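User: My instructor asked us to take a sequence, write out its structure as tokens, and then describe one feature of it. I'm not sure where to start. Here is the sequence I was given:
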Amino acid sequence: MAPPLLLLQDIRLTLGTAPLLDGAEIAVSPGDRLCLVGRNGSGKSTLLKIAAGLLTQDAGTRFAQPGATVRYLAQEPDLAGHETIRDYVEAGLGPGDDPHRARTLLDQLGLNPEAAPDHLSGGEARRAALARALAPAPDILLLDEPTNHLDLPAIAWLEAELAAMRTAMVLISHDRRLLESLSRSIVWLDRGITRRIDRGFAHFEAWRDEVLEQEERDRHKLGRKLAMEEDWLRYGVTARRKRNVKRLANLHALREQRRQQRGGTAGLKLAATEADISGKLVAVAEDVGKSFDGRPIVAGLTTRILRGDRVGIVGPNGAGKTTLLSLLTGALAPDAGTVKLGAGLRMVTLDQRRESLDPDLTLADTLTGASGRRGGDMVEVNGQPRHVIGYMKDFLFTPEQARTRVGVLSGGERGRLALAVALAKPSNLLVLDEPTNDLDLETLELLQEMLGDYAGTVLLVSHDRDFLDRVATSVINAEGGGRWVDYAGGYTDMLAQRGAPVMVARAAARTTQPSGASPARAARKLSFKDKHALETLPARIDELQRGIAKHTRVLADAGLYGRDPAAFRRATDALAEAETELAKAEERWLELEMLREELEGG
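Assistant: Let's start with the prediction itself. The structure tokens for your sequence are:
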């Protein structure tokens, strides 16, 4: 077995008064694909910064093989100090790295290399940071939430790009589909320590549940032992005090151990406060149109939203998803057509950037509705008063955080707080704009369950494919040119009905080039080989999708790795190869189809 390129051993770090990392370990060998998972606030990003050499631990060792190159993608990249995006990306290259790859990545990600970094949106800044991390083809990639602020085409491109690389990776992400596609090993950070299993993310939940069940059994045994020791303490310690001092010390250690075990088992509770039921028709759009600066954002949209629907709105960044959401909720008037809202609607909105949260207020004041001053101690939930501390605990906040300013909370903590504020308000229509941003996997699971139990209607903008599949009953997809099409089912159902993949990032790049730029391929014609590929690729894509489904079913056997590790590895490798081939086939088909349409249109 090859020695690790990067090794963290017994990493300990204390922030404030509580230890954040208490013996965490990670070993990254050539070709490893590790996903680092854990709750928000568990220290994942901190551990990744230590791995990148950007933060020094209190104790423990970090070792990197001499000459090994490490590139780190932060959640919030800093592009300051560079005149253009190209300068920023090329500044990350090392001696011998190819500048051409940097320019190619910028083109594939739809970025103008000469654009100034201070004029970029959040998604564009994230794509530039990805180009900087990927351009050198490093030995180790450390990626902290790489899909944040990316749209679905960019996520699909990134997944294919990472799958094709031989670089070792450590990946933090809330995108389950990305983790399932790329990971080969799991490192679970929980209560300051790490556990590792060399299996893909699809096996994480079953493994986690086994570990927690074993802990529960151990707690039960510990409780019985503690009761026996306390019985002995009451009736036997007086006569045997001198020779049993050690046993008394062991009892205190047992009590401390039990307190520590209890500390990590608190669960998140999500439940929406529901208002009176709305009418059956929630919104009816008839031939709706909306344009900005002569560009059609919505053109000729007709749709009905009924009580109980969970409607997902998807499309590339800039397609107008938030505009469509505003039209359907009456927050924005259409230029053409009509939008009629149903009776008795009580709408609660969770905005994408959490702008409704005042950074200067405390967590408790935010929940109780105070405005710039200390409020009461109660928050109304489902028409009943609850103490703010108890409600905070439902969302994994500690009593000590009640007076913490919102501005110092992590991204995941702000996401949970925004959910707590929104779900406390009575509603029968939830409008969620990117609700999964910065949420950990456990919070996502509970949010999905809550939305499944919610009696009202949900309008949802999201780039999380798995979340859409689990929640949405229909999907409205941006098809280009202001045209939106309504599909039944979730995201995967939408792809199956379209019979074609969503527009990938490379295609989007052509629409974002400066005026006057003309792709060389526009002058091409379809050769016999191109025509043959255009006709045969759909069947090849179907074949690869069936193969992926087959390999996924094989790997769903929780006992396969224990029975036959070689078979598990063969299935994992075959799945990764099929997914890479599928991404290439879909991209090639789309490129040829767009060329065909362009030539026929000309």
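For the description part of your assignment, you could build on this observation: Residues 234-244, 261-266, 370-374, 504-524 have pLDDT under 50 and may be disordered. Try explaining in your own words what that tells you about the chain.
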